Amino acid sequence: MTTFHPARLHTTLVAAALAGLLAAPAFAADGPHPVEKRAFNLPPSAELNYSIQAKQSGLDVKGQGLVKWTNGKTSYSVSTETRAMLLGKILETSSEGAVDAYGLAPDRFVEKRLRRDPSTTTFNREQNKITFTQSADSFPLQGGEQDRTNITWQLVAVARANAAKMTPGSEWKFFVAGPRDAEQWSFKVVGREKISTPQGQTEAVHIFRAPPPDDQGQKLDIWLAPKMEWYPVRLKFTDPDGDYIEQTLDSVKKTN
To answer: Is there a contact between 218 and 22 (Cβ–Cβ < 8 Å)?
Structure first.
């Protein structure tokens, strides 16, 4: 009989599911980082429900995820909620801010983990600095910086405006802040694939984010569906030992 370890499961799920990938910073605090301005096209506001399936230490886990994305034209907000069977709500995140020449321009990113106080990452536009409640580090704001919750939606917005350029092998880089630090993330387009969801089969652009070569962190796969406003229809986090967490879109409801 498999022994259930709720504490271990909580730690693993929280570290991966919608919270982003844990890796060492690629740039020193207060140092410069690359800046790139791209065309973008924000998708319509929507509520997206996901089913979650995972394998952790031989244990099959199921859960649900809810994402609320709001396109306010000159502002945005996105919130996520992740629940696991037997554990209930294990993770809440939120990102809100403005829309500027680079796309999403976060003001605040908040992450609340089970039985922990929330962490807040602030994008201080007056001081041109990113600061953290969980760390004394800071990083300069140069334009185009994202956080671990809104990065998926910035990627969606860029893909919508650059569909012809989302070709296999193309690379898309973003500077992303988490609860304690920030680093550059590099996404590469794998190709187009058929994805099965409860709403039927759809074609999706498969995008892959790997940790740096010297980092044994998690890998992230995202599938964006062009015929469904480029919403993410599947996300998969994979650990070096083969454990994984996979989220598949169950339903989507446009809210504007």
So the answer is: yes
